[in-house]
Structures are given as C-alpha cells and as structure tokens.
Recover the amino acids of this structure.
C-alpha cells in the first residue's frame, strides 16, 4: 500500500482534491512546471496529492507548497505503479487525476479503469509526441490508450496538431494550455547577482545565452557555428548553461572553431534566471520542443530573444516573430543574421515582459481548473 503523508485530510468529504501522478527520474523543466502548477492550485484552495513513482524523490522540494500531500507509491518501474494508483483512487477518491509525462499517462488511464471509481483522468503532454515517439509500442499506447482519458492537455497548438495528425486523435479530445512559467519566485531569483564574470555591469562585450540539456534536440552546434559568424563581425560572448551527453562533442567543436575564449559551458545552474535577465540576447536553437519554457522565461524577464521556428511552441511564444525573429531549424546563416540584428537593435524590454504575462502561473492554473472541473462553485466564490 502507498506510504502516505496526509495533511489533515481524511478519505471522506472534501471540497476539491486533485491527484497528480509523476513518474520521474530527474528534475527538469517539466518537473518545475508541475511544481508551479501545484503551488498555484494549492493557493486556490485545492488539496493536491503528488503521487511519486520510480525514483520517488520530491522535485524542487524547497519550492513545493508545504500543503502538498506527497504520496510514495513504493514502486521503481513505471508499470508497477498501476495497482498502487488504483488502490489510492479507491481509498481517497480524488475529484480528478492529472498525469505528468508520457509514462504517467499509461499508468493513470489503466489504474483509473481498474479502480472502477469513475475518476476523471486528464493527460498532460509536455513534449511534441509527433517528434519524440518513434517506437511502435509507444505509438500504439498513444493512439489507442490516450483517447480513453477524459481530455488530453498539450502545451502548444503545434503539439496539439501533431498529436491529432500523427496519432489520429479527435481534435475535440485535445486542449491547449501553455506552461505556467512566470511567478514571484522567478522574478525574485532573476534579481539575484549573476554568478558569472562575463555579466558584470562594465562588460566588454554583449553576452548571448543558451539554456538547455546538451543533447541533440537542442542543436547547440548550430548556435555555436552561428555565434562564430557573429563574432567575426562584432565583439560578443556565448554562454550555454546545461549538462548532457553532447558536452565533449561541443567542447571539441568550440576548440575546432577557435572560440575557447568567447564560449563557455559552465554546466548546470540551480538559478539560471539571474544570468538570463542580465544577458543581452537569449538564443534558442532547438530542432524540436514541446513548448520552449526557457524562451518564455527569457521574454518574461525582458531579455531579447531569437529562436528557430521548430515544432512546437517557439512561434506561439514569439507570436509569429512579433517578439523576436524566427529562423529555420539548422540554418546557421539565418541564426547569425538574426542574432546580430537583435544585438544591434534590441526590442523594448517592457513589451517583452507584457508578452510574458500570457504564461503567468495564476492564469494557467485557472485554465487547468476549468478543464478538470475544479473551478470554485458560485457558493464557494461568494464565501
């Protein structure tokens, strides 16, 4: 039976209760998004139960609302969580079950059906499955299991279109809610002093910033090659924050291009936002995204940005290029041209910050509440 830590809530009557199933082995952008959502829902008076499987470690524990009921399912493999989740649903009878990550969707849907509790299941998808799901078995699950959820929530219109086209899911089953990005914590962290010597106020050259896992999907080679072209025409420096399996390849590329003095790969930063706010330009070079959290974070902090027009998310974040140039994926020349133009003629930071209001934690949480039937009733609102 799951090991529960209950915050004074019995399995009996309760106004609104949401279970969130998170099978996670690492902390990243998706985990931070879920923590942001949990925090805002808790502020709204919803009791949130966070069901943990696999590594069973609470993501960003110092940021998670203390009223969150953390439930350790006691499992290590994703499918072994099916019976514990079904038993949880039978005992606590939450008003809804929201699944995070692809693996959680399969477990959540099957568990709800086994429990026979009629618990509404909502599948949240934070990546572009049309780009990332390639194995036959995973395609089968998406195509035949996901439609059995009450609704599927994707983080961009592009991801939604790909889901419907690739997996033949009915459009009326799919809803789009952007990720909850901006909150007071983000702005507080952004105001801290940036921990990098290149970002001093009397810097000798503008700093371009890239943030993300050092992996193929982020296509940092294109960014580095484009930066070399910028550097040939004007002083500039490039910071790429993150870790990953492509580190050695990127370090070799930087040396091959003779950029050792102007490109730095400082690794993972627990607070990238102070650097993001002080950077002169943020560049996203991804081959694909589910949404592009870091791009939304950058413009929310008033930092100018350029991005590839990759599937899916950046075009929506930058409003078709209104808030920053969009360039073809893998196009070194176009990326270099866009970066140089924005460095020379940056947009008004306040217009960027206003554009970021679309991704506020408060607004996004309300959209989730509405779709999941967790909005306060008129009687509760009057109280």
């Amino acid at each position: 039976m799951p090991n529960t830590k209950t915050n004074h809530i019995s399995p009996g009557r309760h106004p609104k209760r949401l279970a969130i199933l998170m099978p996670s082995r690492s902390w990243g952008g998706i985990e931070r998004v879920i923590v942001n959502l949990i925090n805002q829902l808790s502020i709204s008076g919803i009791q949130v139960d966070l069901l943990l499987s696999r590594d069973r470690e609470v993501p960003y524990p110092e940021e998670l609302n203390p009223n969150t009921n953390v439930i350790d399912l006691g499992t290590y493999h994703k499918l072994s969580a099916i019976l514990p989740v079904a038993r949880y649903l039978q005992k606590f009878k939450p008003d809804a079950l929201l699944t995070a990550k692809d693996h959680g969707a399969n477990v959540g849907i099957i568990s709800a059906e086994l429990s026979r509790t009629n618990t509404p299941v909502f599948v949240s998808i934070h990546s572009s499955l049309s780009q990332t799901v390639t194995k036959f078995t995973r395609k089968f699950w998406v195509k035949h299991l996901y439609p059995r959820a009450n609704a599927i929530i994707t983080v961009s219109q592009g991801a939604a279109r790909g889901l419907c086209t690739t997996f033949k899911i009915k459009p009326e089953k799919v809803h789009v809610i952007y990720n909850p990005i901006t909150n007071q914590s983000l702005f507080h962290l952004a105001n801290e002093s940036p921990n990098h010597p290149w970002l001093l106020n009397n810097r000798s050259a503008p700093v371009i910033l890239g943030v993300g896992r050092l992996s193929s999907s982020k296509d940092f080679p294109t960014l580095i090659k484009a930066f070399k072209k910028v550097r040939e025409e004007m002083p500039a420096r490039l910071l790429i924050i993150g870790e990953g399996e492509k580190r050695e390849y990127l370090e070799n590329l930087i040396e091959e291009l003779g950029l050792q003095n102007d490109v730095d790969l400082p690794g993972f930063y627990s607070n990238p936002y102070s650097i993001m706010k002080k950077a002169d330009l943020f560049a996203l070079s991804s081959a694909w995204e589910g949404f592009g959290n870091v791009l939304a974070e950058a413009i929310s902090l008033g930092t100018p940005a350029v991005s590839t027009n990759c599937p899916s998310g950046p075009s929506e974040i930058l409003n078709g290029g209104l808030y920053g140039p969009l360039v073809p994926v893998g196009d070194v020349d176009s990326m270099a041209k866009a970066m140089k133009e924005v460095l020379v003629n940056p947009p008004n930071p306040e217009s960027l910050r206003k554009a970021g209001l679309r991704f506020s934690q408060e607004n996004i949480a309300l959209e989730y509440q509405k779709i999941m039937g967790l909005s306060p009733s008129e009687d509760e609102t009057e109280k």
